[in-house]
Amino acid sequence: MNAELLLMFTLSCDRAYLYAHPERDLTADETSRYDQALAKRASGIPAQYITGHQEFWGMDFIVTPAVLIPRPETEHVIETVLPLARLLTKPRIVDVGTGSGCIALVLAKELGTAEIHATDISPAAQEIARVNAARHQLQDRVQFHQTDLLTGLEPGAFDFVVSNPPYVGRSEEDEVQLEVRKFEPSQAVFAGETGIEVIARLIPQAQSALKLGGWLVMEISGTIVRQVEVALQDWGSVSVVRDLQQIPRVAVARKN
C-alpha cells in the first residue's frame, strides 16, 4: 500500500489511474523520484511526511514533521463532539494543541454556526494549521492562538474544550513505533514520564475555560484511562468511549 501511495504521489495521479494504465512506463525522471521516495520510506520516514498529505474525516491535510500525523482513532473525538454541539445554536469550541488543525477544521466544516478557536504552543504547527485552514477556505472560521494549552483564553467562555493532547509516557517509549519516536514531533507524542502530565494540567485549565455545563472531550489511551478517571472525579457525566479495537480512546466530562 505504501509503494502504491508513493507511486501515486510521484505521478500526481489517483489509484484508479494506476489500475487503468498498467502498461504505462515511468520516465527516467519519474523513476528517479520514485526511487528517492521509496528510499525515504525504507529509512522509516512516514509516507505522509514524504507526500506531505494525510486524509482525515474525508478532508486532505498538509502535514510536515512539525505536526503529528492525523490518525483514524482521533475521528472518535469528532464523533463524540458533534451530537453534543448540535444541541446548541452557536457553540463556542476550543481545540487545544491543534497541530495540523484537523480537529478544529473538521468541526468548523461540520458546525456552520460554531465559533472555533485553536491553540498550539508551536509556531511551526500553527503555520501548518493556518495553511490547512486556507486550503479548505475556513481561515475566517477558526481563530488561532499561539499559547500553552489554554493560557490567556477567556475564562468561562467555551461550551467545549476538545483536545488530542500528548498522552504517551517516556516509560512506554520502547513500545512506541520506531517511526513515531524518530520522526513525529516529540512534544506532540510524549507528555512526560507517565503520560498523564499534560492532561493533568489541561483538566483544571478546562474547568476554568468552560461555561457551566460545558464539555471536556479529549483523546486518551488505555494505559492512562484510570488516572484520567481519577483526575475527573469532581466533574459530572464522566464517560470513556472505546475505539473499534475496544481500547479506551476518548474521555468525556461535563463541568458541574
Question: What's the structural blueprint in terms of helices and strands?
Answer:
Elements: H1 2-11, H2 15-20, H3 28-42, H4 47-51, E1 53-56, E2 59-62, H5 75-85, E3 92-96, H6 102-110, E4 115-120, H7 123-135, E5 142-146, E6 158-163, E7 168-169, H8 178-183, H9 186-189, E8 190-192, H10 197-209, E9 210-219, H11 225-231, E10 236-242, E11 248-254
Parallel strand pairs: 3-4, 3-6, 4-5, 6-9, 7-8
Antiparallel strand pairs: 1-2, 9-11, 10-11
Descriptive account of the structure:
The mean pLDDT is 97. The protein is 39% helix and 23% strand. It has 256 residues and is an alpha/beta fold. The strands form three sheets. It has a seven-stranded mixed beta sheet with strand order 5-4-3-6-9-11-10, with helices on both faces. A two-stranded antiparallel sheet has the order 1-2. It has a two-stranded parallel ribbon with strand order 7-8. The chain has helices at residues 2-11, 15-20, 28-42, 47-51, 75-85, 102-110, 123-135, 178-183, 186-189, 197-209, 225-231, and strands at residues 53-56, 59-62, 92-96, 115-120, 142-146, 158-163, 168-169, 190-192, 210-219, 236-242, 248-254. The radius of gyration is 20 Å and the shape is globular.
